[in-house]
Amino acid sequence: MKKKVLLCHNFLKEGFESLEDDFELIYPDKQIFTKNDVIERIEDIDVLVPNFTFRTDAEIIDKGSKLKLIANYGVGYNTIDVDYAASKGVVVTNTPESVLEPTAELCFALILTAARRIGYYNNKLHNKEKLSWGIFDNLGLPIYGKTLGIYGMGRIGQAVARRAKASGMKIIYHNRHRLGKDIEDKYEAGYVNFDELLRQSDFLSLNAPATAENYHLMGKDEFEKMKPTAIFVNTARGSLVDEKALADALLNKKIFAAGIDVFENEPNIHPALLDLDNVVLTPHAGTTTYDGRMNMEKEVARNILNFFKGGTINRVN
Amino acid sequence: MKKKVLLCHNFLKEGFESLEDDFELIYPDKQIFTKNDVIERIEDIDVLVPNFTFRTDAEIIDKGSKLKLIANYGVGYNTIDVDYAASKGVVVTNTPESVLEPTAELCFALILTAARRIGYYNNKLHNKEKLSWGIFDNLGLPIYGKTLGIYGMGRIGQAVARRAKASGMKIIYHNRHRLGKDIEDKYEAGYVNFDELLRQSDFLSLNAPATAENYHLMGKDEFEKMKPTAIFVNTARGSLVDEKALADALLNKKIFAAGIDVFENEPNIHPALLDLDNVVLTPHAGTTTYDGRMNMEKEVARNILNFFKGGTINRVN
Q1: Closest-approach residue (CA) in chain A for B107
Q2: pTM score of the predicted model
């Protein structure tokens, strides 16, 4: 009998073609399976594929008596109770390969868009509002020659650093663990503590996974420590930032601008951010390209195939 | 007696400090000198500093009987009758050094912003319009792995190529003259003819100066040859593009998106472009940063000093 894979989202079929011979793929007949839908079906399911917004909690894991693998569609797995899964012998995998370049790309795009005020200009022009073209009006900031501080210098952080270095930026970073000299040399990146990161960065980018420890890492005090000319970018997770404190910092020019892709209560954005013209907003779009979506599906499929047939999987628990 | 420098714009004084000992600097007491203002004053002027929108024509050059140098603030000198100036023994200089990185930076920012639909997302969110956050909704395009075609592979084109290569793009280019193998190798850039550039590029960026020959280089036929998934970026000069044809191509999905910083009749933009949500618009902002403006002034000042004292100048005629 074929193993059963429950997919929580009406994914593109093309990305899971490699599974069709050996697995029974169960897609929702609507856009998504809700938690109740999953609980109703989980009992004889071998593999659960949650998308990055679906919460896979202890209740679901308990009811999945045949569940062997939770193959997450996404790199962040803060939506999955990975420790509980481990205690029940259920493996959790994610998709770090496929999200790497698209997310670094969006992160770098937000750095540029916020610095050069492209969101502001574009909105003014499309809304047919008054905008001076004067030589010294509405000046933005360059990124060339400036210092980019990266909080979380993992694979995505390093992919951002590669782009930044080619664009003339100096790199500093903070991590739980300092990187090896070979990696630091590759990006000419200097290790600093978190306080120095806040104070020295002309641009500060969060590229760390969400954890209990970094909840509201960036609050009023942290934004106060930043330069008034600094630009803050978050493409990691919304829980790392106190959105109200960010909005206050932007309103009161404690920092110059921001580019924000992730929010604490998606799809809701703190209303104070919506009215500020010095923040560029995107709807958790780190991987929202056709290529990105397809590559994520293929990575999920590879994790599932290799889990059962042997081979490398991106195991996180 | 000190030589007299007439500055057509109320520039920041700081950038011209190096001239103060040896030159008399004449600034407008309002934002700019008009053509009439300049004609009234030009007779005993040694150096004219036009900004990049001021038109320095034969009439001004004729009236400037003591004029020795036109030290343009900007790299593009299509606003100056350089041949007529040469015939009268008047040297023209420009500021290629200082505009290089800021312009390449904006160009690359527009490539990213248009591809990843950041302008669209940002406007929808700030304007509080409906925007789906669904996994497969409003997909953009990645730049990673795609082909960037560069029309005009001079210094700015190469600075764009450097950023693009670090972001995983493949480079092709078209130029009047093919570059040396060393430069091609540096960017792994392939030379193609203009027709191939149009057909093969996933992204097409114009980085050539405006000339009589490239007036409306991009018209209906050229956009038709591009891929329907292609993105077009212009940070060069507005005269290279038929704006109506561009708007039609964007409206009819002949191309996917565009990022446009320069326009034929600045500060006016063809109204058809304003209503399209797949074009990112910026107000000739290639150098609109504080650092950029200051560096341009310092380069103008260096051209003036070196012209009289000996040393390198960026002469264009």
Answers
A1: A112
A2: 0.95
